[in-house]
Amino acid sequence: MFELLGVPPQVLMGQLLLGLINGSFYAVLSLGLAVIFGLLNIINFSHGAQYMLGAFVAWMLLEYLGISYWWALLLAPVIVGATGLVLEKLALRRLYHLDHLYGLLLTFGVALIIQGLFRNYYGISGLPYQIPDQLSGGQNLGFMFLPNYRGWVVVASVVVCFGTWFVIEKTKLGAYLRAATENPTLVGAFGINVPLMIMLTYGFGVALAGFAGVLAAPIYSVNPNMGADLIIVVFAVVVIGGMGSIMGAIVTGFGLGIIEGLTKVFYPAGSAVVIFVIMAIVLMIKPEGLFGRNA
Amino acid sequence: MKTYVLGALTVASFALPAAAQDAMDVKLGVLNDRSGVYADLSGEGSVVAARMAVADFGAADKGLNVEVISADHQNKPDVASNIARQWYDQDGVDAILDVPTSSAALAVADITAQENKILIDSGAGSTQLTGEQCQPTTIHWTYDTAALAKGTGGAVTEGGDAKWFFLTADYAFGHSLEEETSKVVAEAGGEVVGTVRHPFPATDFSSFLLQAQGSGADVIGLANAGGDTVNAIKQASEFGITQAGQSLAALLMFITDVHALGAETAQGLVLTEAFYWDHDDDTRAWSARFEEEFGSKPTMVHAGVYSGTMHYLRAVEATGSTEGDVVAEWMKANPFDDPLFGEGYVRKDGRVIHDMHLYEVKSPDESTGEWDLYNLVATIPGEEAFLPMEGSGCAFANAG
C-alpha cells in the first residue's frame, strides 16, 4: 500500500471528503456575500450574525413552537431574510450612493448589536440542537465513517449554490438584476421596480446566511459568537474568489475547504492560517481574485 | 442661619448611637468576565453568589457593613490590572473575588500582594497561582488544572482506558493541561499514543477526530475549553466515535458546557468538578436559592465565590481587620466545614484543599430535567487531588 508523505490513502480520502463538507459551509456563506456585493455593492459584515440568527431561529422554532428541523430549514431562512429586508429598507438603502466603507461600518455595527443582544439573553455557552432522526447514524465507506447528516449538508449546499448561480446567470430575472446593478436608471425606465428588486436581493443573500445557520445548528455549537468566528474566513474566501463573482464564490468555497482539510492532516497547527496565506498570494498575483471580472 | 443648621447637624452626627459608628466597612469587588467566553460560568452569577454569602453570613448583624461591587475584565490582564489598582487605591476595595482567566488572575494576585489586600480566586485554573507565582495574600479556592488532570486522567486510566490521544488547543493553557494529564496518565500506568494540536478557537474538529479515531487510542483527551470542547464533543458523537468504543475525557468542562450540549450528545462523558448542585441536601438547598435569584443552576465557580466570601467574612469578623496579611493568616489557620465544599482548609501556599469529584454525564433516559446531568463516579480526597506543596515552587510557603 502506498503512502503519501506518511499518510495512508484511506486517511487522505477521508480528509478530502471532510474538506468538501466544510467547503459547503464556506460556499453557501460566501455565495450570499458575493450576491450582495455583486448586485448591491454592499460589503455585508453582518453576514456572520445573520448566519448565527439562522441557527438560533431554528432552535427557537423547535424550543418554543415544536417545529422540526425540516420546517426550520424552510422557515428560518425566510424569517432571517425578512429581518434583512427591514435592515435594507430602514438603513442600508440610504448608503448606496456613498463609499463602501459606510455600508461596511453599518453592517458591522448591526452585527455587534445582534450578537450582544443574543449574548445577553441566551448566554455564551450555547444551546443544544440535535440532528434530525432521519439523518442520524452514518455510512461506513471503508475509508471512513460518513455521518448521514454531513452527506446531506454537501447535497443541500450544492443544490442551493448551483440553483442560485443558475437564477442569476441564466434566467431573465437574473438578467434584470444584473442590468439593474449596471444602470438602475435605465432599468427603472423600463418599468421595473428597481429599489424593490434590490431589497429582495439583499433579503435573499441574508436568507442564504440563515440557511447555512440552520445547516450548522446540529453539528456546531449554537452560540452568539458562532458567526463571528467564521465570517473572517468566509471573507477571505470571497476575496480569493473575486468580490462579486457568483461562480468564484462557490468554487473557491469548496476548493478552500479541501485545501484546509489537507492542511489539517499534514500540518494541523497551520490549518487556521492556510486560507489567509492563499489570500495573500492571490492578492499579490491577481488582485481582482481568481474569478474576478475587473479590478 | 445656615451655619447654625450645619453646626447642629454636625453635633447630631457625633451623637449617633455607638453601634452604627462601630460598623466596619468592608468592600468586596467581583472581577470577572461579564461578556465573553467565561460570562456564563462566572459573570453575574458570581456577583449573586457573593451577595448571598454576605446575606447568609448575617454581616449587618455582626457589625460589618459589606458592599459588593463588580466589573468586567474582558479576560485581559491589562484591563484586570487597571481595575484592581483603581479599586484598591481609590474605591476602597478590601478583597477581589473570582477572576477567571489565569493571566488576568496572576496580574491581580501581584497587585493584591503589593497593596496588602486579599484575592480569593475561583474562576482561574493555573497552578501558578499557588506555584512559582504564589503570593501570601492569594487564596485559590475552587479548582486548578492539576486537580482536573488528576481526577479525570487518573480515574480513566485506572479504569482500564490506558491508551490516550490528546486533542489539544494550540496555546499555553492547552499545552499545560496536556502536559499535566500526560504525567498523571504515565503515573497510573497508561501511555499517550498521539497528540494533535488544533488552532484556537476552532469550529470544525472532524478532521482531528478522524486522526484520533485512527490512532487506536482507548480514550480521547480534550485539552481545550469552552466552545472548542463543546464542538469537539458534538462532532465526536456525530462521527460515531463514542459508539465505536472510544471514550471522551473533557479535561476542563463546566456544567454550563454540558448543559449546552444536552444529555443526548454528552452522555458517557467523564469530567472532574469541585461542586455539583445535586450532590447532597446542602448543595441542593443552596442551588435552589441561587436559581431563584439568578435563573439557572450554579457552576463550581459560583459556589467557590460563595464559600470563599463566607470564609473571608469569618476572618474579618474574628480579626476585626481587613489587612491582607492578617486576614490571610486567619483564613489559613482556621479550617472550614462548608455546605458546598465539605470540610477543607486553606494551605500555607493559598491552595484550598477540599474534595474533588469525578462525574459521568447521564444518558437522556436517566436524566429527569435539563440540569439533571451527572452521576457521581468517585470522590478524590483533597490531599490527593491537588499537587503537594513541596516542589510546587512556591518560595514563601516552602521557606520554613
From TrEMBL, chain A:
GO cellular component: plasma membrane
Name this polypeptide is given: Amino acid/amide ABC transporter membrane protein 1, HAAT family
Keywords noted in UniProt: Amino-acid transport, Cell membrane, Membrane, Transmembrane, Transmembrane helix, Transport
Ranges annotated as spanning the membrane: 12-35, 42-62, 68-87, 99-118, 149-168, 200-220, 232-259, 265-285
Family classification: Belongs to the binding-protein-dependent transport system permease family. LivHM subfamily.
Example of a GO biological process term: amino acid transport
Alphabetical list of InterPro entries matching this protein: ABC_transp_permease, BCAA_transport_permease
Topology in membrane: Multi-pass membrane protein
Compartments in which it is found: Cell membrane
GO molecular function, one term: transmembrane transporter activity
TrEMBL record, chain B:
Biological-process GO terms, alphabetical: amino acid transport
InterPro entries, sorted: BCAA_transport (IPR051010), Leu-bd (IPR028081), Peripla_BP_I (IPR028082)
Annotated protein name in UniProt: Amino acid/amide ABC transporter substrate-binding protein, HAAT family
Organism: Limimaricola pyoseonensis
Residue ranges the record marks as coiled coil: none
Signal peptide per UniProt: 1-20
CDD domains with a match to the protein in the record: PBP1_SBP-like (cd06327)
Entry superkingdom: Bacteria
Family: Belongs to the leucine-binding protein family.
Alphabetical UniProt keywords: Amino-acid transport, Signal, Transport
Pfam family, one: Peripla_BP_6
UniProt-listed Gene3D superfamilies: 3.40.50.2300
UniProt domain Leucine-binding protein: residue ranges: 26-362
